[in-house]
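Homework help board

Subject: predicted structure for assignment chain

Our instructor gave us this sequence and asked us to write out the predicted structure in token form, then describe one feature. I got the tokens but I'm not sure how to describe them. Can anyone check?
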Amino acid sequence: MTPRVRFAPSPTGRLHLGNARIAVVNWLFARCHGGRFFLRFDDTDRERCRPGYLAAVCEDLDWLGLDRDGEYRQSERGAVYEAAFARLRARDRVYPCYETPEELAALREAARRAGRPFRYRRGTGPPEAERRAREGATAPHWRFALGEGRIRWQDLVFGAREQSLAELGDPVVRRADGGWTYLFASVADDLDLGTSHVIRGEDHLANTGVQIALFEALGAVPPAFAHLPLLLGPDGRPLAKRGAAPPLAALREEGVEPRAVVAVLARLGTGRPADPGDDRTTLCRDFDLAAYGRSPARLDPREIRRLSVRMLRSMSFAEAAPRLRALGLGGIDERFWRAVRPNLERFEEVADWWRICREPLSPVREDPGFLEQAAALLPERIEDADRAAAWIAAVARASGRRGRDLYRPLRLALTGQEHGPELKCLLPLLGAARARARLEGQRA
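My token output:
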């Protein structure tokens, strides 16, 4: 069977690293097993969902390179839910309830005072005569009759699990305003779209028994379930609870490489650290749901930033070339890329070095006498790094300078920067004429 998985965010905010991890693992599972990956927006919360967030989620997924095989919105799938609801009604597995929120609160309070959990079951509400009096006058909400017994399943991360239905209350599947709850809509969607594996966060583990009961009540075989432990920050506190998981948009604005985000999130919790060479091929080769541990995984966003720099500084020219063209830097060749690559923190910084090497620059002159001495020793041509290194060595011998005293004034005059790529690699890119002019204090 071809695997079919989905990422189902609620468009109530920007994606952060916690829910992006779920998207990455679902996408890898599909792509590594020849399956299909769908995006489903759980946008039934009319008050909190915003249209702008739908576009933002797609933008974030595109940035990560997580292509989709289809996109759906729950707000547009009412016919699917009506059909599934009708099947449950025909089987007498749902029933109307007429309690007001205040009455439900009173029932919960009475259970609390009695020292027992509140479990709503058929017959919990008002007497039959009162219920009949409310019919037609008040719109009901509808509950799913769970029944008794135990639900057992094999979670692909947490192993054998079971849940006693007798310990649970009958969940609401349809609200009084006609809207659908997450528990029901998600099951109806997974059934209609043929979801084979539900891969989601550990916080949904408690819902699984109820959802399996819904699948079975609809006459369907439930999908396989896999729940990933929640993420902790470097201090051991939950990322989601304190809002410390940075949104993907912030990482993108920082210039973080998306491949670094995907690699760290894919490896998190497997015991195998992310590597600068991680790409789709290596991640698929190593992917295994069973490799994810059951303990919460710690995520330090600084790890992503460090890996991003390492990936950037090992990036081949073939990989960089399309991005250079997109920045209008199609004139950059492999020699230039290799020269500036070791000092990049963000990909876009290559444009700064292109301007330094190709556009007029007003030099910063410290110790003009030394710079004039260096200019006098400069050969007519500097074809390569070896010729540049020979000139630097000659300047060192003539001046008696070493280290910072030698390199700082040369670098400031030639580039206007205190730090950067090796001078012996930059000089052939600058050219002898431009280098001489800058050493002599000219704008060149």
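Reply (TA_rk): Your tokens look well-formed. For the description, you could write something like this. The chain has a mean pLDDT of 92. That's the kind of observation they're looking for.
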